[in-house]
Amino acid sequence: MALLEEPIKKVVELKNYINGEWVESRGENVDVVNPVTGKAIAKVPISTKEEIDAAVAAAQEAYPDWRRTAPVARARYLFRLKELLEENFEELSRIQTQEHGKTIDESRGETRRGIENVEVACGIPTLIQGPYSEDIAPGIDEWIIRQPLGVFGIIGPFNFPFMIPLWSAPYALATGNCVVIKPSSEVPNSQARLAELVDEAGFPPGVWNLVHGGRTVVNGMLDHPDIKGITFVGSTPTAKFIYERCGATGKRVIAQGGAKNYMVIMPDCDIRSTIPALMTSFFGNAGQRCLSGANLVVVGDDGFYNKLMDGVADTAAKIIIGSGLDESVQMGPVRDKDKKKRILGYIESGIQQGAKLRLDGRKALKIRGDWPDTCFLGPTILENVAPDTKCGSEEIFGPVMSVMRAKDLDEAIDMCNACSFANAHAIFTSKGKNAREFQYRVVSGNLGINIGIVAPMAWFPFSGAKESFFGVLHTQGQESIRFFTESKVVIQRWA
Amino acid sequence: MIMHTCSEVISFARQLENESAGFYESLARKYAKDGDVFLSFAKENKKNIVQVERAYYGVISDAIEGCFAFEIDTAGYTFKTELAGDASYAGALSRAEEIEVKIVKFYSDAAEQSKALMADVPRNFTLVAKKRSNRISKLQSLR
Predict the structure, then answer these.
(1) What ipTM, to 2 d.p.?
(2) Which of A109, B4, B108, B116 is most exposed, with the fewest beta carbons within 10 Å of its own?
(3) Best residue of A271, A273, A275, A327 to probe chain B, by most B CBs closer than 10 Å
(4) Where are the beta strands (DSSP E) in chain B?
(5) Res B83: pLDDT
(6) What is the pLDDT of residues A54-93, one digit of tens each?
(7) Predicted TM-score (pTM) above 0.90
(8) What are the angstrom distances between the C-alpha of A147 and each of A125, A206, A250?
């Protein structure tokens, strides 16, 4: 099948988008490297504090007029953006593949998920309506008005460079706020292209700003008095740090952290449909999802275990690895060589702590196409992993399946609940009772029943619990509307 | 070649539609008597591409098994579009029928295997299979 054309053909010098202008940064530039080819595709600036301050100032200045723009008019801007995203769907998807390494199907999926959030936010004229009670007492009525707050900061991760800022930005804008987005400096291209489309859609200057960079930009956001709230997706230590700093500076915060998702396999599951779901869950996006399966818990006797694991290992061994722009490829590289090194360390520690290597992704790596193996790693399966080992308890964020066993559902549920993370545990079963027990008793922000990637649609909150989430309200859908607005209660009497 | 990913299956569908459209366009030039029928098939092929791509781009998301959805061997659906210079009209129609049978089988198999995807993809594969199946009786009526 075809190797799709790369949209980025020469090294792009990225700029910040502040107050409707493309502004060159005074910060140092670093290379953005395509993990497949090892070649630079862009130079991204590590912006300065003055530059994040300028973006916040522009957003703050744009806010009063934007807030007074009617919700239906704000929705029309979003409709225009949605049209442009559809028109440029393929280019946006290929940019994600080029900057991140994920397969083209995964990138298109990411683009679609991002657009769905724009679509949901287009419903703002009704989404923003508050409840109204007539006659709470004779002649007295009470209602809620949802009002925007001002400027919000959005800090994106490397694993879903296009989609994740769109879990927040469309809702922030729809509710009348302005935003400053800081994409991951490892994968900034798709956000830069998105900002170009925002510009083309005609949003007023200052409503949507993009500032590339690192810690200086993040700290500049966290400490800025004009930023009313932050949304963040990334690792748990950083999520905690951001949550605490936002608490100290009085900001609203949605801080989504890491994960260690348990996939519980009951002996009554449909193995034929479970295996592809497990492949996507553990090895899709090269395991770099906060919704990825990490620990596979098999319930049942040796006969069932062997039958399942033979199928899982055989299928995983056949996964086609290569460039995500090759349509036949099922798994791309991990994002960079440092991440690969970290994953290799986990595999090594797993073996040292008693795990049995069933499939070794480090060896006999067959890459489709003539690419350097710098960032490639095959699917790895470790059996006999104990939950309290490094491999069993820490987020690996790579294509590694840690297999455990449980004698029954109760034990499997206890294992899930003993985990410090609670992002997306799942069960595979054909029995309603098992599914119901799992749903009822397992602590997990998102929970799957015969679903390997428990990704909430745009009109549902992207939930999370325990060490996977810090905050109260979540991104996406109605909860986003509440996060980005203050509820003003009005009580009125006309005697 | 075995196809596993949605992207390659959609590209393969596009290839089948384009190649068979080219075949019908050449038939229309060669056999003007029924040229309108053949041209309508070629035109319909282009609509089929739009229909299938729209379904795919509409539902592809990272929640479905996009890279593990299929196990389809392209060898089962390939066909020849060249006709010998001295090919009879009946021979050309037989070739067209063979092509349609192969394409119907491709869409039917792809629909069956993509049940795990959101409903639009297999539904549209089935709809296109049905349209192409109807062509077989139309081709037979031209004899």
Answers:
(1) 0.93
(2) B116
(3) A327
(4) 2-3, 72-73
(5) 85
(6) 999 999 999 999 999 999 999 999 999 999 999 999 999 9
(7) yes
(8) 13, 19, 18
